[in-house]
Amino acid sequence: MEILTTRFGPVTINAQDRVEFPKGLVGVAQLKRFALVADPQVRGLTWLQSTRDPVWALALVSPRVFVPDFAIRTTPDQLRPIQLESAGDADVYVTLNRTVQNFTVNLQAPIIIHRRRSLGMQLVLSDSQFSVRHTINFGAPLRMSA
Fold first, then answer.
1. Cβ count near 36 (within 10 Å)
2. 91 vs 86: CA distance, rounded Å
3. Contact 117, 82 (CB under 8 A)
4. Counting runs of H as helices and runs of E as strands, what totals does the chain give?
5. At residue 35, does pLDDT exceed 60?
6. Rounded to whole angstroms, how far apart are CA atoms 107 and 92?
7. 66-110: per-residue pLDDT in tens?
8. Do 102 and 135 form a contact (C-beta atoms < 8 A)?
């Protein structure tokens, strides 16, 4: 499948890189179909690109790169929308944001992807000790922010 993106132009997406978010994402519940696109220049950076809207994408990184003790406490009911039965089947990401002064990650609302089922969700943590704007040292340049 080929999709159009504003960051990379036309991109061919493999079936295993497509992800459906049954409940959408916080603030954009209407967007449900996405693709994971590895940034060709920045190792460890993945874009969650809408397959329907070429402009809409989020920069994602692994939270453990910046916060080694990052952990999510959930219940099976919370993970039911993505049919996740084992933590080992989950890829966990956080959104990367660039401000004028620094980079931050949102540790309060991680994105969980069940790759085998191509299902994803954004889990808003209510009891997290982590911040929405956790400042990090991300030395790589970013393309246009989402």
1. 21
2. 11
3. yes
4. 1, 11
5. yes
6. 11
7. 888 888 888 888 888 898 877 778 899 999 988 777 888 899 999
8. yes
130: containing domain: 2-136
Residue 92's nearest CA partner among 74, 24, 50, 41 is 74
Task: Tell whether 145 is covered by a domain.
Answer: no
Does residue 112 sit within a domain? yes
- Strand 119-122 vs strand 111-114: parallel, antiparallel, or unpaired? antiparallel
Say if residues 93 and 39 touch (Cβ distance below 8 Å): no
For 12, what's the count of Cα atoms within 13 Å in the CB-facing half-sphere? 1
Query: What is the rounded CA–CA span in Å between residue 111 and residue 64?
Result: 13
Burial of residue 81 (CB within 10 Å: 0-12, 13-18, 19+) is middle
Structurally, the chain folds into a number of domains equal to 1
In a domain, 113, yes or no: yes
User: Does residue 141 form part of some domain?
Assistant: no
pTM of this structure: 0.85
Q: Which residues pair with 33 in a beta bridge?
A: 20
Q: Burial, 120: exposed, middle or buried (Cβ in 10 Å; 0-12, 13-18, 19+)?
A: buried
Q: What's the CATH number where 70 sits?
A: 2.30.290.10
